[in-house]
Amino acid sequence: MLEFATSSTTTNTFRVTPTTANITHPVHRCIPSAVHHRPSCLYQPSSILLQHKCSISLCYNFNPIKAMAETETFRTPVDDHQSFGHGKKQALISLSDKKDLAFLGNGLQGLGYTIVSTGGTASALENAGVTVTKVEQLTCFPEMLDGRVKTLHPNIHGGILARRDQRHHMEALTEHGISTFDVVVVNLYPFYDKVSSANGITFEDGIENIDIGGPAMIRAAAKNHKDVLVVVDSEDYAALLDFLHGKHGDGQQFRRKLAWKAFQHVASYDSAVSEWLWKQTAGEEKFPPSITIPLSLKSSLRYGENPHQKAAYYVDKSLSEVNAGGIATAIQLHGKEMSYNNYLDADAAWNCVSEFKNPTCVIVKHTNPCGVASRDVVIEAYRLAVKADPVSAFGGIVAFNVEVDEDLAKEIREFRSPTDGETRMFYEIVIAPKYSKKGLEILRGKSKTLRILEAIKNEKGKLSLRQVGGGWLAQESDDLIPQDIQFNVVSEKTPQASELRDAEFAWLCVKHVKSNAIVIAKVWVVGNLTV
User: Fold this and answer.
1) Distance CA 29, CA 23 (A)
2) Mind listing the pLDDT tens digit for each residue in 56-93?
3) Catalytic residue among 366, 460, 514, 522
4) What is the pTM of this model?
5) Is 366 a catalytic site residue?
6) Residue 188 three-state SS
């Protein structure tokens, strides 16, 4: 049954019941069993109120409505500016990480933006005193499928993707009653944190934490960045508000930078999903057909290997590197900024010292160990490592696999070079897994420039990558230790037990010395060695 009343004005009122009429776009057909779940709808140009008993009231300036029982299409005039909201400013906000949300929401509202939001983000904004239009009021459709579908709708994506300089785009929005979005602020489900958590996650939970709607909105806004500002990082909220206040000179450059950041954000997110899924399906296969490695800039460096080379330092954000240790995750507790060569030397020293179980000291110069010693007492190990090659040790990097306490720190600070017995030993970097409070205080007093790093031991089983011109070499990391292999005697003379221990110690050291390495090992006390 179709009932309608017409007056001399431009407003037509219709009442439709679902049993007798099929309503074409922009009004969705109403299903009686689900109608009580549907929200109030702000679908423009019509104002649609979905009532109980599934009746629909349609008011003012409406697009075509077609009844099954009728063949005639009814059309009434449209006022573009009044009906479709092209003249009003809208911001779409949907966040998993709600850091600084109140600052953003109030800032946008103060600039005259209508805030459109979803679920928990909308609630948080309302609690912060921000007036919010919920997404379902625009889509005329409730969130469904446990949240899998809420923003995947033409009323959302049409408003993001429409090019304002294309007349047919804007006419299409007008025809379908869709408003434009000028700002889109979205970040994604915490997939990375969930699948890398210490408690682990089931495969099903991992799948449910893969964001779909968020990346779609981010990509849409970034593609249309000429007309839509897209923000994925709370650190950019202040810059966004400044831009909207007119404080940025080159507007398109600012928009392009935000768009780049948005695509990079989604690319890193997708790389984590891809890496995780590969691990769930590949079994023992180590080398996937393709690899995407997400790198995050940690710092710009003064120069590279040589002063004329520019350089930067990136951290690997692959899932395989989460809590896996290494020099990249070290915390600098003191000293001047690290250089390109400092990182190379520190990595070499830390990788070497991490091989040993007994208290050990490793001193590195130009990425090569020049002194390695293991003793029951770490101070003795330090002294012997210096004595192995005191000339090379001067100005080197010293690493320990045990805590640097007060006594060891004093020894590092005061120890004289064995070459003359007078000159205090100088080092670029000290690395250890931890420092006592007093030990750190003493080391800081040795030099203002001494770099002090606190690092975590590298996990085994990593993939080792090395760049060559135009490509990369990949191999399993060299994690073998003497206890993992069987030594076979091939000489006529059978080595004594102490000589085998020398060989095992030297075998661990030589793996960290560059090509044509020669390692000399000598037993000082049974089981305690120095190179």
Assistant:
1) 6
2) 333 333 333 333 333 333 333 333 333 344 568 999 99
3) 366
4) 0.73
5) yes
6) coil
